Amino acid sequence: MSFNKLKKSSIILLGLAVKIIALVVRPNKDYWVFGAGKGEDFIDNSKFLFLHVAHHNRKIHPIWITTNKRVISQLRTEGYECYHNYSAKGIFSILKAGVGILCTNRSDIHFFQPSKDKILVNLFHGMPIKKIIYDFEGHNLKRNPFYDKIWNVFAATSKWEDSRLIPSTAEFFNESLSTAFKTENVYVTGLPRNDIFFYDTHVKEKFKGIDNHKKWKLSDKRIVSYLPTHRKFGKGKINPIPFIDDQEMQDFLSNANTILLYKAHYNYAIHKDRIPDEKSVMNISHWDIDTQYLLKISDVLITDYSSCLFDFLLLDRPILLYFYDNYAIEDNHLYFDIEDPHYAPGPIIRNQKELKRILVGVIETGDPFRQKRQKFVQKYHKFRDGKSSLRIVESINNILSDRGDLSDV
Prior knowledge:
Layout: H1 3-21, E1 28-34, H2 44-56, E2 61-66, H3 69-77, E3 82-84, H4 88-96, E4 97-102, E5 119-122, H5 145-156, E6 163-168, H6 171-181, E7 186-188, H7 196-199, H8 208-214, E8 222-226, H9 247-255, E9 258-262, E10 281-283, H10 291-297, E11 300-303, H11 308-313, E12 319-322, H12 327-330, E13 348-349, H13 352-365, H14 370-380, H15 388-401
Helix pairs in contact: 1-5, 2-15
């Protein structure tokens, strides 16, 4: 038996024991457990809702659950409560919690068992362009359906359709989210991760370590961020990095005090160190930086079918849509044709030559796309106020208030 299978089998056996222990533990509606990144990271919507609750709601007891010792050390050093998913304290916290919150995968938190006394909140990680979860039409990656069923019962212990709340940024996305997760529990609240655009004015300070590492001051430069999505969950073709072989464009960027930062999707982890840095084009995929902080300091975004384009709309800065391939052929079908001008909040670009021309124009003469973007902001965002986390907490409490059988212990 391989190490991974042995590890998964051990987790399943632990999950069986947890199910038995759960019979004698009463949930508490004020205990909320959070997880993200398949249990490995402190990231995304779960992270920002966790921080909001920890700082603004004394009644709620927020606990971060992870399998990453570095995350445990980091959060405890910063004064937050955090436990290993498979530790006694972690398991007890999960069993005691009346609310479980995830955003990446059902494995963000193992052993959380939704019931009439325990509600599951699925923050997910962006508004969908490409078809996801139950709507996904691509290749089925599961190789052992029977083993997967056992895993779902004793480790994941929840189904996507168990979610009592899924946030949306606008009615436009509600139907897609509803069919993707087989639930009607979709609410327009906004996403917690986007609140950072409205209330944190010191984001550039979080990049001091990066500045020192490269002896560059990002705070002094115009930043163009290239954030494309994956192909085939990281097993497809790696994204081409613009201008990596274009010395003329690199010189132009340098003279314009501009740097292009490429951050690969986390599914492309195996490719992180394969692309060399150039003086004006950098691969920062291996840097430990939060994508939302990167968006916050970016002056221009280049992306394709990634949901970060909707986030970036809230900053009212140029978005260049670089569709260098046919995603429906390379990967998966889409909910709507983002390449159609009726849906695209920026210029549609097919090749590097075109990208070069448009980016040079933005740098030299300013932002010609702002007026067009305004109607898309309203289309894709009902709220633009930095209060998404607050609305989600209120929504969760409203759900909890309808359940008089939750314990106050």
